[in-house]
Design goal:
The protein has about 140 residues and is α+β, with helices and mostly antiparallel strands. The protein has two domains: about 5-60, no CATH class; about 70-135. The protein is built from four helices and seven strands. The chain binds zinc ion. Zinc ion binds near residues 21, 54 and 56.
């Protein structure tokens, strides 16, 4: 998987050095990264869609879609943003407004070909851990 060591180490710490599924403690060299929303179903390797996994759980999960994927991915997206792991290149609102709005994200609008998160007011298009586009919604 083409992911930087920085991102990999971030996920290792974020998931408290434990398998996301079975909670087993993992040494850095033991880890695999699992696409929470499966790669085979269109889930990309954004930092908020990768979780720490032991080899066994990764194999067992296969291409199943977790029932709570939307909730979990939104939490991890917000955390990644707070932790400075999500960039925003085209800032059309102030940082403060952006932060407030990201906290209000309550749904995933789409996953393919890239993740799109939505609050009641804005839609955020994410490519390579970067907010590439912001669309204002009516109202
Ligand atoms: Zn495990």
């Amino acid at each position: 998987m083409n992911i930087s060591n920085r991102d990999k180490f971030y996920i290792y710490e974020r998931d408290k050095r434990r398998c996301f599924y079975c909670k087993k403690d993992l040494k850095y060299r033991q880890i695999t990264l699992d696409h929470y929303f499966p790669k085979s179903k269109g889930g990309t390797k954004e930092i908020f869609n990768l979780v720490l996994s032991c080899k066994k759980c990764n194999r067992l999960k296969g291409n199943k879609i977790p029932i709570n994927y939307e909730e979990i991915i939104i939490i991890m997206f917000k955390k990644a943003y707070i932790d400075g792991m999500i960039k925003c290149t085209k800032l059309i609102v102030s940082n403060l407004e952006l932060k407030k709005e990201i906290f209000k994200v309550n749904r995933i609008e789409s996953i393919k070909p890239n993740f799109v998160f939505q609050s009641n007011n804005m839609r955020f298009y994410i490519i390579d851990n970067t907010i590439e586009k912001i669309v204002f919604l009516g109202g």
